[in-house]
Design goal:
InterPro entries: DUF7836. It holds the Pfam family DUF7836. It comes from Haloarcula limicola. It is built from one helix and four strands; from the N terminus they run ββββα. The two termini are 16 Å apart. The longest helix is centred in the C-terminal third of the chain and has 9 residues, at 49-57. It has 59 residues and is an alpha+beta fold. The strands form two sheets. The protein has a two-stranded antiparallel sheet. It has a two-stranded antiparallel ribbon with strand order 3-4. Helices cover 15% and strands 24% of the residues.
Length: 59
């Protein structure tokens, strides 16, 4: 079985990256950008609505 990936984008520094849902906290948890350390809910880092839905479905 292939692992799904969620695309993330920091709303402050615009750094983009991918991660598996199992490596991330829940969508409503506080998350910190690994680049600029901006703190927001993880849902605000998801690149698209589809990425957010994938995150919710697989957690």
């Amino acid at each position: 079985m292939e692992e799904a990936y969620v695309r993330l984008l920091c709303p402050e520094c615009t750094k983009g990256w991918e991660s598996t849902p199992s490596e991330l906290p829940t969508h409503d948890s506080l998350f910190h950008c690994p680049n600029c350390h901006a703190s927001r809910r993880l849902a605000e880092f998801t690149r698209t609505d589809r990425d957010l839905q994938t995150l919710k479905d697989l957690q």
